[in-house]
Model the fold of this input.
Amino acid sequence: MKKISVPTLDSVSTSNRVILENLEKKLGFVPNLYATFAHSENGLSNVLSVGNLKTSLSSKEKEVIFLAVSQVNQCEYCIAAHTVIGKANGFTEKQTVEFRLGRSSDNPKLDALARLAKSLAENRGNASADVLDNFFAQGYTNGSLVDTVILVGEKTMANYLHSATQVPIDFPAAPGLDIV
Done:
């Protein structure tokens, strides 16, 4: 199998270099997976555009979805990254592991969201009626459902790119699932 390398700032297009330099200023480093999207002239800007779409869901709710989907897709890179981001959003390590498992023991609304995200990812969009009913019973709307599906797709793109490239993970490893 051909090894895919992480491009350097000097090896990407001028437009991608500007984007990566802005990411470095904002985050303090350029995550390897974002840099890998820069192999494509438009890939990086496209994925960042999707990531910046307006949504009815909060940043915390987005992390719930990202953790559940990344676990289903077994993306160690995104699991590690979103564990860090989830903690930065106020979640405990135990909560991030529960979201990866598609549940929440202390928040019924986030439990419904995690269950839906996991179900959508596992079943290629075919969530069960009881999962959907529970999602709506927790106050989510049809618009929330649409936004959840979009976010599942967004995270799946990143998960698949890491799976295809296996670029090095540059975030601390996430804990094992056995801590809950």
User: Anything to note?
Assistant: Residues 59-179 form a domain with the AhpD-like fold (CATH 1.20.1290.10).
